[in-house]
Amino acid sequence: MENMTLLDFARGPGLQWALWIFFFGVLWRVVGAMFLLGTKDRSKHRRNHYIRDGLRACLTRSAPAHAFEEKIRFQHLTGYAWHIALFVSVLLFAPHILFFESLLGFGWPHLPNTIILFSAAIAIGVLIALLIRRATHPVQRLISNVDDYVSILVVLLPLISGVLAFAHVGARYETLLALHLLSVELLMIWYPFGKLMHTIMTFPSRYQSGTFFGHRGVKA
Amino acid sequence: MRNDQFLGEYLRMQGVSRRGFLKFCSATASLMALPPSAVGQVAEALATARRPSVIWLSFQECTGCTESLTRSHAPTVESLIFDAISLDYHHTLQAAAGHAAEEAREAAMEENKGKYLLVVDGSIPLDNPGYSTIAGISNLQMLEETAADAFAIVAVGTCAAFGGLPHADPNPTGAVAVSDIITDKPIINVSGCPPIPVVITGVLAHFLTFGTIPELDALGRPAAFFGQNIHDRCYRRPFYERGQFAETFDDEGARKGWCLYKLGCKGPTTYNACATLKWNAGTSFPIQSGHGCFGCSEPDFWDKGGLYQPISAGLWGERDALLGAAAAGAALGVGSALAARARKKKALAEEEA
Amino acid sequence: MNAQAISLQDFRAQLEQLGKDVTREKLPDEERVQRAKDAFMRKLDGRRAVDLDTCLHCGMCAEACPFYEATQNEKYAPVYKYRLLRRFYRREMSPMRWFFKPFTSDITIDDLREWKHYVFDACTGCARCDMICPMGINISTLIRVTREGLSAAGLAPNELTDLKREQDAKNSFLGVDADRLRELVDQLADDGVDIPLNKEQADYMLLTTAPEVLLFPGALAANAKILNKAGVKWTMFTDAFEAANLGYITGDTPMLKRTLKRLVDKARDHKIKTVVVPESGHGYHVIRWLGANAIKDDLPFDVLSMPEFITREIAEGKIALKKQANGTSVTYHDPCRLGRKGGVLQEPRDLLTEMGFELRETASNGRENYCCGGGCGEFALSEASTLRQQAFELKKHEFQQAGADEVVTGCASCRFNLQSGAEKAGWQIPVTSLVETVAANLAD
């Protein structure tokens, strides 16, 4: 196509390359880590419901034990607020669902746009609050690196550009839409190389904790 | 109408009352987003306008633009405007043919040198002139010749404005827009497939009134008509906001007149006046009839994904290529792990020793 | 009782003498770094890789660590403690190492020296951080691998190196050798406690540990009483009685294996069916959970902690417990390696309840219990004494909130740390042993 506009690029080759890099990188990293393998635990099990224990840990780690609650209430609440707000605005917005449908072959029900906008606003607010905490709390400031800050930025950009495109604020709609798509493509390209991978790695990690402690008869 | 007659006189002769004429002028002025004070100026200008010469060249087109502009069940003032111009050359409408027609064109060009308006519909094939010729003259040659002494050019329809259907992938005729060929004359792109009739008359009225071309957008289209997208003026917008969509063309949502985004409506990225002016003297427009807008006034609208593919669906290639990328990634992962394990084995062996 | 325990003070004095004469192997710095890296590489597998790749630097692990909580020193955050391992992984083993290497700094000798404080003084491997991590990362295992790297580099604390060398050479530590054991066994015999030594035919092999012999001989007596009451064929071997494993404590894997192998071989030679582990948290952990993996074979015997043994014998009707009538309330302190890491959480509580004690739980108990502060050899580290005491203050606070009359625990190391900590804090609270309580309440 001659005279490819920014939007055409973002919807076409930009998206294509981003998806290729995304799938390539994610598989590379997950398979490469897990394929280092481990040795079987030869000690006699106290409990051998491994699959049950593994799957249970995948769920229960989202709910901190009562003894810890007071200390981590902030992280607990903002963690939930952030993830729920993000999932609602990404996964329950009709145009997004149509995109996933074109990728996966199936869609799902959506929510009205005002709820989505509200949700996106909460997501942005919470993420900024988390960013501030990361930069000011002694522990997080010590352990955070470039990856942490870039990952936050790379998620903030699609949220903010999405809200701007939605509200038609700042530039022509096509430009805003193109920027939104490009910011999502940036996120997909960064994804395999940074800590956004936690969205996938959480599951093998929690699962193996479940089986490790379950083997010893302790609820992970 | 005689060439030396003023438009105002001519209209009175046709039985158009002064009131009717002023009504048209104020409607036109408001369409052009001119202030109320300009109405008088429009009326004065139109009443005393001399009929400018207009040469209409039709290239690779389907004649739909002409049909749209000239089709009327009852005479309207818009169609009378066409009588207000001296349409000195038009394939479909003219009586003459053959050499006589070409001579008429050349005479008009000579007589009105530097002052005539050139209207073009249809794209121009660059690949092989044989694809579209008139009286043995290629479209390219005719355009260049006729544009040379024109005052301004109006590219009517998406084909003339942006290349249109012939320009769609794989563009077998090498079709291009007028603006790809003529770069030294002002060009007004009145896109649409076809354009709304009253948009044309609005442009002409502007030209007749002020002798200048109206304010254009980044794509050379009159901003007054192409300055906003369909989505922002669509009467079904509340349904979009509430998330109520028609999923198929005959489901409950369709019957209730819900938003057509999921059925591929390109309203959000299409700039035209359809949602406000509508078609057939304000009767309806595609969305109102239950079919999504397919962005006919935008460049390359044929190549922006299917007409029924939603805007947010990707325009990317094969899904299978993604599986290939994933497989390649997994292979690299296995390779990197094997290499790491080999070094680990060595370290373990050293410990045993 | 004839069997005399040494005082806490004398024990502490003995600990203070550790490490003073340790001569370090002279190694060039690059060699030390290389050895640490090789140790890291040996322990990095798919599971550790998943752990290392999942951390999102949320910092919640710090909120579970008693050392961070007591000091608010961000460098004691568990995630920071394994930072060197993460850098190594990203540079050398990660699938994307070619990407990360230019951006990840290499490990230096200064790093290793700095980290000694974090992984030895400020970490007991209690795994409380493992319980809080929202990503389910086995943080304590990663810190442990770091410890092993430091140990391989010859940078373990002198006190631990001293103890480890003693055990490696003499098969015992803190001077508690075969003769010392025999001496105690004779004293206990005079007190009416029979401990069969070196029997050819036995089904059960009982272990003990140096702190138990020195500080808490009553616990050994209690174990003997219980085993005798249950009427099982048991013995103790004077050349294979030590449950503690200084290879484990120090992070020296080859030594861990050597030490363990002596016990395993002895048990196998004598066709022992069950090894009974006394009140030693890491002693249980090493043989029960690490043993088979260390010898790369199934253990030829079962392993039971005393609470498990007692529970089983009660269920089979071999022993019974009396209800003590004092109305005493107790708090049970779960030793990390017996409870959270060992899985023996419910049996001690059931036994105490059965004996009629009122059980008062601390706010953090069971799998979330706070470490006593001195586990995994920490009690021997002189540089860590302030930290230890600060961590103990957290325990004291929780104990006082629970308001019980007594603290009961199931590990000699915990017992020593809690008693010593209470003494230093000027807090009068009886800290007793589970097995001694059971032995005192055996029904006839």
Describe it.
The complex is a heterotrimer of chains A (about 220), B (about 350) and C (about 450). By secondary structure, chain A is an all-alpha fold. Chain A is about 75% helix and about 0% strand. In chain A, about 40% of the residues are buried. Chain B has 16 helices and 9 strands. In chain B, the strands form 3 sheets. In chain B, strands 2-1-3-7-9 form a 5-stranded parallel sheet, with helices on both faces. In chain C, the strands form 2 sheets. A 4-stranded parallel sheet of chain C has the order 2-1-3-4, with helices on both faces. Chain C is α/β, with parallel strands linked by helices.
Which short descriptors sum up this protein?
heterotrimer; A: mainly alpha; Fumarate Reductase Cytochrome B subunit; B: 353 residues; alpha/beta; Rossmann fold; 2 domains; five-stranded parallel beta sheet; 16 helices; 42% helix
Note poorly predicted spans of chain C.
none
Largest sheet of chain C, described in full? 4 strands, parallel
| Large-scale geometry of chain A | globular
| N- and C-termini, Cα separation of chain A | 56 Å
Number of strands of chain C: 8
SSE string of chain A: HHHHHHHHHHH
Give me the secondary-structure topology.
The complex is a heterotrimer of chains A (220), B (353) and C (444).
Chain A: H1 6-11, H2 13-34, H3 50-60, H4 66-69, H5 73-91, H6 94-104, H7 113-136, H8 138-143, H9 146-167, H10 173-190, H11 198-215
Chain B: H1 7-13, H2 18-31, H3 38-47, E1 53-58, H4 64-70, H5 77-84, E2 86-89, H6 98-111, E3 117-121, E4 124-125, E5 133-134, E6 137-138, H7 139-148, E7 152-156, H8 157-162, E8 175-176, H9 178-181, E9 187-190, H10 197-210, H11 223-226, H12 230-233, H13 237-242, H14 252-255, H15 274-277, H16 320-352
Parallel strand pairs in B: 1-2, 1-3, 3-7, 7-9
Antiparallel strand pairs in B: 4-8, 5-6
Helix pairs in contact in B: 2-3, 3-10
Chain C: H1 8-16, H2 29-43, H3 46-54, H4 60-64, H5 66-71, H6 78-81, H7 83-93, H8 97-100, H9 109-121, H10 128-132, H11 139-152, H12 158-170, H13 178-190, E1 204-206, H14 210-215, H15 217-230, E2 234-235, H16 246-250, H17 253-269, E3 274-277, H18 281-295, E4 302-305, H19 306-315, E5 329-333, H20 346-354, E6 358-359, H21 385-402, E7 406-409, H22 412-425, E8 431-433, H23 434-440
Parallel strand pairs in C: 1-2, 1-3, 3-4, 5-6, 5-7, 7-8
